[in-house]
Amino acid sequence: MSQENVEVVRRLWAAAERHDSELVFALYDPDIVWGSPASHGPLEVGGFYHGHDGVRQFFRAFLESFESYEAHAEKIEEAGDRVLVRYRVSGRGKGSGVEVAMQRWNVYELRGALVVRVKVFETEAEALEAVGLRE
Question: Which residues contact 50 (CB under 8 A, 6 or more apart)?
Fold first, then answer.
């Protein structure tokens, strides 16, 4: 099942990168839990969000400080029964015009062919610890 999970997350990221939110949400379980254990600075939105509406709320809150925003998956890999994604976020601050770029890690949990939980991490060490691996 792990390789199938990786393929689902690849499809999800491909859809997200082409801004196909209909397919993205089709790959999310209606009861998805999305978020990060803590806020990591002024650009992060800490806490967990529930369901499709919660995920939309998370992104509205996160993206409100950006004039432009892109995220690109750099590595998608199996991590036991979960999927680990390293990605690069870049954008321009709304109002300030400041360019930002950062690397983040997401851990995806799936049931069937749907994503049921996404945890966002600021560091690789945190993400690896979350999946039971060490850096």
Answer: 31, 32, 33, 34
**Torsion angles phi and psi, residue 84, rounded to 5:** -110, 130
Residue 58: is it exposed, middle or buried by C-beta count within 10 angstroms (0-12/13-18/19+)?
buried
> Is the pLDDT at 75 greater than 50, yes or no?
yes
Nearest to 83 by CA among 5, 26, 1: 5
pTM score over 0.85: yes
71 or 134, which is more confident: 71
DSSP string, 62-94: HHTTEEEEEEEEEEEEEETTEEEEEEEEEEEET
The domain defined by 2-130 folds into Nuclear Transport Factor 2; Chain: A, (3.10.450)
Question: Domain boundaries in the chain?
Answer: 2-130
